Amino acid sequence: MIDNLQQGFFGIGIFNGKTPENLGVLWRSAQNMGASYIFTIGNRYAKQACDTHKAVGAMPYFHYTTFDDFYQQLPKGAMLVGVELDERAVSLETFKHPTRCVYLLGAEDHGLSRVAIEKSHHLVKFDTPMSLNVSVAGSIVMYDRRTKVFQKN
Fold it and tell me: Angle formed by the axes of helices 134-152 and 20-33, to 10°?
């Protein structure tokens, strides 16, 4: 296992997510991929059937009512990484993940708000013609981070 000092930490969450099922799937992936915590902005999480590993009790969950509330609570020294199809975003394939960061995903139908995009320290995207399901996108980002961190060691 990677030493936490080398790995740093990361959180991952959804901005105005549409369904609790997407959060449940993302939560399970976050637990498997070593996330420090998970969060939502806007819509609240409700326990549902896809939380088969009881991730609710295994890692912290935070809820923020607004983006500003979330942004003010970013961990000290953490970079905000927005996952968005935007012309300024870099391809995930070439992205170097910050040691301490928070990944922010938008719902499939609306993506991230303009403010969230502007306040992100980094923007990453997938080289796909259409957007991905939010829980799938988050899982891919976490897997990419894990793979690149293991390659360093």
Answer: 10
Single pTM value for the model? 0.87
User: Terminal CA-to-CA distance of the chain, rounded, Å?
Assistant: 10
Model confidence pLDDT, tens digit, residues 7-16: 689 999 999 9
Residue whose token pair is 């928070």: 102
Bridge partners, 9 (sequence order): 100
Q: How far apart are CA 59 and CA 34, in angstroms?
A: 10
Cα 131 to the chain's mean position, in Å?
A: 15
Domain count, the chain: 1
- The Cα–Cα gap between 35 and 103 comes to 10
Q: What's the whole-number mean pLDDT along residues 122-132?
A: 89
- CATH code for position 106: 3.40.1280.10
Task: Give the CA diameter of the chain.
Answer: 39
Domain boundaries, position 78: 4-152
> How far, in Å, CA of 92 to CA of 41, rounded?
23
Residues 44-76 have pLDDT tens digits of 554 444 444 455 667 899 999 999 999 999 999
